C-alpha cells in the first residue's frame, strides 16, 4: 500500500475528504518526527511503541579483502509491537 492509497483509506474510514486526511497524516508524521529528533519514546495504545536507540560504533571486516572498517555510531528507530497487535497477527 502506498501513501496515496493509505490516505484514501483513512479518509473513507473517518468520513473526511482526501485533502483533510492528507493534512492529518502530514501533521502526524511531522509531529512524530520532531518527537523522535528529541529522543522521545512514542507509545500508541494497542499498537506498539517507537523508540530512538543509539547503535554503538563497531569494527567490520570485509570478507573478500580482510580489510577492517570502523562503522561510526548512529541513531536508529526501533518499533516494539504491543501484545494485542502480536495476538492479532
How would you describe this structure to a colleague?
The chain is α+β, with helices and mostly antiparallel strands. The protein has two domains: 1-40; 50-89, no CATH class. It is built from three helices and five strands. It has helices at residues 3-13, 18-37, 83-88, and strands at residues 42-44, 48-55, 58-61, 68-71, 74-81. A three-stranded antiparallel beta sheet has the order 1-2-5. β1 and β2 (48-55) form a beta hairpin. α1 (3-13) packs across α2 (18-37). The longest helix is centred in the N-terminal third of the chain and has 20 residues, at 18-37. It is elongated and about 60 Å long. The model has no long low-confidence stretch (mean pLDDT 91).
Quick overview of this protein structure:
The protein is an alpha+beta fold. The protein folds into two domains: 1-40; 50-89, no CATH class. The chain contains three helices and five strands, in the order ααβββββα.
* Proportion of residues in β-strands: 25-35%
Number of strands: 5
Summarize the amount of helix as a percent range: 40-55%
Shape: elongated
Q: Radius of gyration from the CA trace?
A: 19 Å
Briefly note the structural class of the backbone. Answer: alpha+beta
User: How many domains?
Assistant: 2
Low-confidence stretches: none
Helix-strand pattern, N to C?
A: HHEEEEEH
Count the helices. How many?
Answer: 3
Strand line-up in the sheet with most strands = 1-2-5
Major sheet:
3 strands, antiparallel
Amino acid at each position: 500500500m502506498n501513501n496515496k492509497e493509505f490516505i484514501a483509506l483513512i479518509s473513507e474510514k473517518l468520513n473526511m475528504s482526501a485533502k483533510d486526511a492528507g493534512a492529518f497524516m502530514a501533521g502526524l508524521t511531522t509531529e512524530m518526527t520532531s518527537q523522535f529528533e528529541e529522543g522521545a519514546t512514542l507509545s500508541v495504545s494497542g499498537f506498539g511503541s517507537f523508540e530512538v536507540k543509539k547503535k554503538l560504533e563497531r569494527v567490520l571486516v570485509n570478507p573478500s579483502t580482510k580489510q577492517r572498517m570502523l562503522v561510526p555510531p548512529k541513531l536508529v528507530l526501533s518499533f516494539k509491537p504491543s501484545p494485542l497487535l502480536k495476538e492479532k497477527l
